[in-house]
User: Fold this.
Amino acid sequence: MTASPWRLRAAATAALAAVAVLLALPTPRTAAPAAPAGPLTLTQAWPAARTVNLAATMPDGSRFFPSAVLDPGHLVGTVSTADGNHTDLVELAVADPTHPRILQGYDTAAGTSIDAVTAAGGRIYWMTSTPDDLGRPHTSLYRAEAAGGQPRDLTDDTGRPDYYGTRYDLQVADGRVYWIATRNVDPPTSELRSIAVDGGPVSVRPLDSAYALTAWPWLTSTPPLGQPLVQLNAVTGERRTIAPKPGEQLSCSPTWCRGTTSNATSTVITMRRLDGGGEVRVNTDGEGSATMDVAVLDRFELLAAPLGGPTPTSEGGQRATTSEKLTVYDLKTRRRVAVAVATAEGVHSPWLWWSTGDNETLTWHLLDLTTLK
Amino acid sequence: MAGPWGVEILAVVLVVAIAARGWLGRSVTSPRAQEWVTVFVAIVVQAMPFVVLGTLLSAAIATLVPERFFARALPKRPALAVPLAGAAGLALPGCECASVPVAGALMRRGVTPAAALAFLLSAPAINPVVLAATAVAFPGRPQMVVGRLVASLATSVAMGWLWLRLGRDDWLRAPRRTAVTGNRAVAYLGAVRQDAAEAAGFLVIGAAAAATLNVLVPPRWLHLLAAHPVISVVALAGLAVLLSICSEADAFVAASLAQFSLTARLAFLVVGPMVDLKLFAMQAGTFGRGFATRFAPATFVVGVALAVAVGSLLW
Amino acid sequence: MVRRGAAQSVVLLLVGGTLLKIALAGTYVRYVKVGLRGYLVAAGAVLVAVALASLVHTLWTAGSRRAGHDHDVDDGHGHSHRGFDPSWLLVAPALALLLIAPPALGSYAAARGGTALAAGADSDYPPLPDGDPVRISVLDYADRAVFGKGHTLGRRAVTLSGFVMAGDHGHRYLARMVITCCAADARPVKVGLAGDLPPDAAPDAWLEVTGTYTAQTDTDPVNGQPIPYLAVTSARSIPAPAQPYES
Assistant:
């Protein structure tokens, strides 16, 4: 038992050194639990993502649908009664959604509709069309201060407005409100109309062909399948033509183009810059574009795939409503991120929203795309 | 393991652990394995301050207190010394981990085993910290505190007397008495080192067993057991054994087991600090396996019986 | 015996050092209550001091010609020299803490445990503190919602933080583990998130949710206790907090 002292000392020294090393090692990062199977989800991809959630159903059974976002706490949208006969355009505080401020109310049954809503600089602008006795629509442009007060009728001189379902349909830039109206049906030509945000005469600028508004100051044509796309700078008059690939339907923002090619069995959506660079397929089979907007924030393509069969509801039951799997394709990092299973969705850059749930539990989720960092 | 090559082997083990650290870190990824490791180290970490306190006390009793002190302080008749030692448990605020080495040291210093055992059982169950925790966990139910105090004290005294009547010294690996020679400080140091290392080592066995049961037993089962009045009492007492929760915490766990009757929960509180997996391992280490295999089941039965008796008087 | 003493000293040094490290680095909160820090530091310091003093003494006496019996206190404890020395087992938790550093209990443990409310507690709650939204614990919200029937919550906006736990039928809960002593007694407290929110948060992701009281509840399948709901108005991901448990 009496080992030589030097050997004991050597062993003890070695053991002490090992203890010292063990204690000095950095604390290991906690091994993450085995990653759940499936695609990358929103919070995994962007932990700082900010969503705002809002119950869609009011106490009286009427439903809220977002149209635009004033700020993360305030939305503009419509509230429709359960029977669908009456709709109010409202401004609503997320913290107190059951007491909306009514901007304008109208009878849906009489054919009135609100066609375009936008918010800029603390003001809300919208187009309301009402049929006259002969059933011809008459459209007026209104403005309201987000802070309160009576809405103002900016003009009835709106022409025959065209809407393409993007946030640019009614666009505020350089102190004016812009929209596109139909000038001639055959051959189709448009006119660019605008009015100062505080009212005044409406300026009408005839255009050589049919255009839609995209991010100011650009107008973009909406060519048929296989035809080139033309973009026109409304300020400088610069014009550029983008050629499609064979069999491709083009739609472009001022920076990106979306090319859609369909055959009998599948649709392929590719994205490329205007100069043709950075081309990438973004969709999977069965997935289509979720919005008309091309490359929101010059970065995000929104895709939706319909889900077959009923989906579970929050009550544990099933519902028959169709729902879609909503995916964001990030053009910057070239990855797909699953966002939600949604029953409806919309975009008003930089916000993306979608709904989940059914009748009583219908909820809007609004995602600030600028927080996807 | 601890033969003449002890330090050498230890050095090799530690160096291998350093070399394999990457593999070790990656090996525990399933949520169940992670939960096991978390609960395992949590029990050890939680108990260590109490083990250290207990061994500082027990080493002091073993080496610093004059040999005849306890023999004089306690009544000569063991039958009287037992309840006094049991009541003395009111004074030592510590976990059950601390009381095992202290009880061992008391025996070494000439205290009759029956009295030391009564102290062993009562100290963790009825010390002021535990009673206060019980009062907090059961607001508006002071009967629970009273019930715990009475039933625990009765159980510890009953076990002491039972040992006097039935116990045989050869079951107990009676720690040899030593005459301390040489430097008292050196003797104290050696005693602390040895008590701490061994008590904590047995704690590790208990922690591993408790973590295993914690992770394996589906809590859903408890819900089913709670429905039956007799089974629920035995089930909760058994759960106390398996979970090995420290006595300062068990009242809160009992409070959360709301589907069980108050009597069943009292049994949980009485048995838990006296019999559980880590205590069993520590008792087997300190007093011998022959002792632990007899003493722990007997304590369990007596504890459950007295908890039911007290419970039937209170509710 | 000298050699066993040396090995024990090294083990105690490892354990004491580990306790000091987790206490000072703050990772101890994954396992035990925040308030235990001082005790862990004290225990670790005592163990390190005892181990070092004991080791120095052992090596010094081993070096001297007098090595032998008069310093062998261990003999006095009457343990068999050849017996199994349990102190070796302490290497396991020390290495687990240093090399694995297991995480705080999360959604796996929460799903296995029944929601733990302060059952039977008095339903007399003080008014919520000031703040809009007011930040309260998951446990406080659950107690006020279930036992206080939401009276003290009213229409106030409250902010809770916890981790996501997936339930049956796609329900999502915000959960927090509550500990009294250590992770071995951890019990989950669960609050349902009304409106399937947040839509994509994976289990174990930490969220800060703001919302208002709703009378909706469901029943914990584990223990049959009620689980209150929160009507969520906003949610954001947050990093795991420094103190993972509520108490």
Remarks:
- DSSP finds two helices and 30 strands in chain A.
- The longest strand of chain A covers residues 63-71.
- The interface with chain B takes residues 1, 3, 8, 11-12, 14-15, 18-19, 21-22, 25, 28, 31-34 of chain A (CB under 8 Å).
- Residues 5-24 of chain A form the longest helix (20 residues).
